[in-house]
Specification:
By secondary structure, this protein is of the alpha/beta class. Helices cover about 15% and strands about 30% of the residues. The structure holds zinc ion.
Length: about 250
């Protein structure tokens, strides 16, 4: 199994979006990523699909006229399109076999529609919560022809790929543990932990259910205590800690 972290642009955001009360209105740039996993026997898995390429020409494509327009501004260049990132590695989107969505927010499921041959894994509770819900823009993922396999809990779903259910950011949010042979266990947290500040400040107030989020984060830091490394959802400082494409983890 091999992992490549794909950089898919950034979002210009108020700190208040991730750590309410801390530098609340000050803006900073947060990375958006997808994770390409080359499974044994050549099967291809993506964890999350980033923001839609619609934002390259129109940063307001998703949030124009909503409360989020002021707080979140996608910043994408043509090379930040997930198809461009995959093409650079010699892969076309229809070759992707599986997609795990940690959750269905616009920056994690924004390109689901491009993966027409994939089986998508989401938690049933989350999927049902997101259906028709404007906080989870359905146009990117609830489209005819996509096949969702709905999960009721965690466990190993593919060889070396383990789901850990981490609610709080949203109902039925899930994180993914990758058991890499050389580089050890890497945990793709999704937005169960946005960035280090959530842990350092014990600030979970941006989460839909802060108490659940705190418990989920503890579950993940327990894995860290056992030797796993945590890849947070949107930590600008981790861009230097975890090298991205073309670097590969084995
Ligand atoms: Zn996110």
């Amino acid at each position: 199994m091999k992992l490549t972290i794909l950089p898919l642009g950034t979002c210009w955001s108020a700190h208040g979006v991730v750590t309410p009360g801390h530098l609340h209105d000050e803006k900073f740039s947060i990375p958006v990523s997808s994770y390409l996993v080359e499974l044994d026997r050549g099967r291809l898995l993506l964890i999350d699909t980033g923001m839609s390429r619609a934002h390259i020409s129109n940063p307001d494509a998703t949030w124009a006229g909503t409360d989020f327009a002021e707080m979140l501004t996608p910043v994408m260049q043509p090379e930040d399109d997930i198809a461009a990132q995959l093409n650079a590695l010699g892969i076309e989107p229809p070759q992707i076999d599986y997609v795990i969505n940690t959750h269905l927010h616009f920056d994690h499921a924004g390109n689901n529609f491009q993966f027409i041959n994939a089986t998508f894994f989401a938690q049933r509770e989350h999927y049902e919560h997101a259906l028709g819900n404007p906080h989870f823009p359905n146009e990117y993922w609830n489209v005819p022809g996509l096949r969702y396999e709905l999960l009721d809990g965690g466990g190993e779903i593919l060889p070396g790929v383990e789901i850990v259910v981490t609610p709080g950011h949203a109902p039925g949010h899930q994180s993914v543990v990758l058991h890499l042979r050389r580089d050890g266990d890497l945990v793709i947290c999704g937005d169960a932990i946005y960035l280090q500040d959530n842990l350092d400040l014990e600030n979970w107030q941006a989460m839909a259910d802060p108490e659940e989020a705190r418990k989920s984060a503890s579950r993940l830091t327990e894995l860290e205590a056992q030797g796993a490394r945590l890849v947070y959802g949107h930590d600008p400082a981790q861009v230097d800690v975890f090298p991205r494409a073309p670097h590969r983890y084995y």
